[in-house]
C-alpha cells in the first residue's frame, strides 16, 4: 500500500507540474498571477515530498501544511467549477491530448481530495487551523493589487487582474473589499468543513500512510 500511495502522490505532482508547465518551462511569467498556477505548483512540490516519504518511509509533511494546501487546491477546483467560465478549447493550451485547465482545475483537486480522505492519518487538525490557513489569501490579493499598480499592462491579455472578482480597477474599493471579505469568510467555512471531516474520519485505516 505504501508503494501505491507513493506513486499516486507522484502522479498528482505530475499533473500539477504538467498543468502549469507554461510557467515552469516556457518562461511565461504572467501565468504566476493566477491562483490556480500558484496552488497547483505548491501542491506539486508537496506531493513530491509526500510521495517520496511514502516510498522511502521518510517524514511526511506536517498536518498543518498538508491541510492548508489541500484546502486551497479544493478551493481552486470549486472556484473553477462554480465561478469561472468554462475554458475555451480553441485558446487553452493542450498537453497529452487534454486541456491543461482540466489537469489543474479538475484532476489535481479531485486526486488531492481523495488523498486526504483515504491516505492521510486523521484527527490531527485543530479548529484554529481554519483561521491560520487563511494566511495565504491576503498575501495573494496584496500581490495581485501591488503588481497591477506597478505593471498595469502586465497581462495576461494586458489585464493585470486575473479574475473579475478581484479587479480593483473595475470594482472600486468598496465592492473589492466586500468581495475579499466574502471570499475570506467562505474560505474559513471550507476550512472548518475540512477540520470537521478530519475529526469525523477514523484516525487510521488500512489505507493510511504515515
From TrEMBL:
It comes from the Bacteria. This is Pr6Pr family membrane protein. The chain crosses the membrane at residues 7-26, 32-56, 63-84, 96-119, 131-151, 171-197. The keyword ATP-binding does not apply. Keywords: Membrane, Transmembrane, Transmembrane helix. It comes from Bifidobacterium fermentum.
Amino acid at each position: 500500500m505504501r508503494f501505491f500511495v507513493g506513486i499516486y502522490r507522484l502522479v498528482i505532482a505530475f499533473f500539477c507540474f504538467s498543468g502549469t508547465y507554461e510557467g515552469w518551462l516556457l518562461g511565461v511569467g504572467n501565468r504566476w498571477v493566477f491562483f490556480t498556477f500558484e496552488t497547483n505548483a505548491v501542491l506539486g512540490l508537496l506531493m513530491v515530498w509526500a510521495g517520496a516519504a511514502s516510498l522511502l518511509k521518510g517524514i511526511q509533511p506536517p498536518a498543518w501544511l498538508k491541510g492548508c494546501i489541500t484546502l486551497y487546491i479544493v478551493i481552486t477546483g470549486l472556484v473553477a467549477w462554480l465561478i469561472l467560465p468554462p475554458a475555451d478549447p480553441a485558446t487553452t493550451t493542450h498537453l497529452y491530448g487534454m486541456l491543461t485547465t482540466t489537469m489543474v482545475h479538475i484532476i489535481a483537486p479531485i486526486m488531492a481530495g481523495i488523498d486526504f480522505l483515504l491516505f492521510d492519518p486523521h484527527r490531527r487538525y485543530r479548529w484554529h487551523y481554519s483561521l491560520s490557513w487563511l494566511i495565504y489569501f491576503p498575501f495573494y490579493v496584496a500581490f495581485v493589487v501591488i503588481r497591477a499598480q506597478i505593471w498595469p499592462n502586465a497581462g495576461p491579455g494586458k489585464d493585470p487582474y486575473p479574475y473579475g472578482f478581484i479587479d480593483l480597477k473595475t470594482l472600486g474599493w468598496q465592492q473589492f473589499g466586500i468581495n475579499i471579505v466574502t471570499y475570506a469568510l467562505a474560505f474559513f467555512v471550507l476550512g472548518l468543513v475540512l477540520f470537521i471531516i478530519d475529526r469525523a474520519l477514523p484516525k487510521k485505516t488500512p489505507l493510511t500512510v504515515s
